[in-house]
Amino acid sequence: MDLAKDKTHRQCLNQFCTNALLHLYITSTEKTQPISPIERNRLLKRFIKPKLENHQFRLIKRELKTILQSKRSIEHLLLKAIEVTSMQDKMLAEIVKWTNFISELSSTLALDIEVIKEEHPLKRNAINVLDNDVFNSFDVDTGTYKQLLTIKICYTCQKLTDKIIALVQQDKLYQVASLQTFEGEGFFVTTAMLNFKTQCVQCPDFAANSRIKSE
């Protein structure tokens, strides 16, 4: 995942939605009578449509098309988009912390990082990360992630055991929910289950509720 590009994409969407809503609210104040939900949709469509052809907004063209084609309140969708992207930026920061932690662990222990399926054998002399944790725990589409993450460090030198335990326990980003070492035939496995100290972020449905009649 290109974290920098993903963050730029979310910032662009957040900024655009904010500007669109400001346009709506400023336009609304010019009206002498309250405007209907359908009229609010028309005003927002008039603002958004020209932007689809603007190269500046190429990163969010798909989202803008989805918003325009929806039969829901565009105003509501823009508000939800702002809420989601703001929370996902926070979640993205947690992903960076997690990957930095694994990278530093790999560098300090001189072990490779391997992403494996839970049912597959562990890679020796490697920090084994379960693919479920990598691909399912951090879901940038829904904005949710699990708090409990597992790493299995498989190594052949017993002297590493104490060092591994100390490194895992000293990290301030996570609480160690479980830490166990298993001795196999010619190798050792230290399994750490790590719990985020920060609160898990649950983003709302991007296009939930607030239906209005189509024009």
UniProtKB/TrEMBL annotation:
Task: Kindly provide the name given to this protein in its UniProt entry.
Answer: DUF2913 family protein
Record the organism. Answer: Shewanella maritima
